[in-house]
Specification:
The chain is α+β, with helices and mostly antiparallel strands and 165 residues long. It folds into two domains: 74 residues, no CATH class; 78 residues, Orthogonal Bundle (Arc Repressor Mutant, subunit A), CATH 1.10.10.10. The protein has seven helices and ten strands. A five-stranded antiparallel β-sheet has the order 1-2-3-4-5, covered by helices on one side. Strands 7-9-8 form a three-stranded antiparallel β-sheet. The protein has a two-stranded parallel ribbon with strand order 6-10. Strand 8 and strand 9 form a beta hairpin. Helix 4 crosses helix 6.
Length: 165
């Protein structure tokens, strides 16, 4: 999907969600995390409800939509937020400046950038991925598949500084 294309409810529904992991809600049970296949900034969690909540909504689970890793009150709010470029923090900008346009192995890249910046950068890379600014993929290797990363071609974003005006 093109970065400048307006995202609508229909655009979201035309895509699919893929299983992106699971979360534990303690006594309530597990939740499934979903990632949209064509809109990387959009994800959802089907989280369990306690008995009181379940009785109010008439279901045992509720879907919570997220854009750029932040929860939205509804799918309509998520669609609204998807039509505004993501805002990256100064820490994210430091990592992004070191992220190549061409594919590179993630683990050595993460270690090198972490050493250069004197801090762990794994969560920062995850946030850049959730904002659709970097891409990851798994590639075959021995003894198991390895993660690779690159700056997403044509990714549009705003820095915190620019957002403040």
């Amino acid at each position: 999907m093109a970065e400048t294309e307006t995202i609508t409810h229909d655009t979201v529904m035309a895509g699919r969600l893929r299983d992106a992991g699971h979360a534990n809600y303690g006594k309530l049970g597990g939740a499934t995390i979903w990632q949209h296949t064509t809109i990387p900034r959009l994800s959802a969690v089907d989280r369990p409800l306690d008995r009181v909540e379940a009785k109010k909504v008439g279901a045992s689970r509720v879907r919570v939509w997220s854009v750029d890793g932040a929860a939205c009150a509804s799918l309509d709010e998520a669609v609204e937020r998807l039509n505004v470029p993501p805002i990256i923090t100064a820490e994210e900008a430091e990592v992004l400046a070191r992220t190549p346009d061409e594919w590179i192995q993630l683990l050595p890249f993460r270690e090198q950038v972490g050493a250069e910046l004197g801090r762990q950068v794994g969560i920062t890379i995850l946030m850049l991925r959730q904002k659709g600014i970097v891409e990851n993929e798994l590639r075959p290797a021995e003894p198991r598949w390895e993660p690779w990363i690159r700056r997403k071609p044509g990714a549009v974003f705003t820095t915190e500084e620019a957002a403040r005006g």
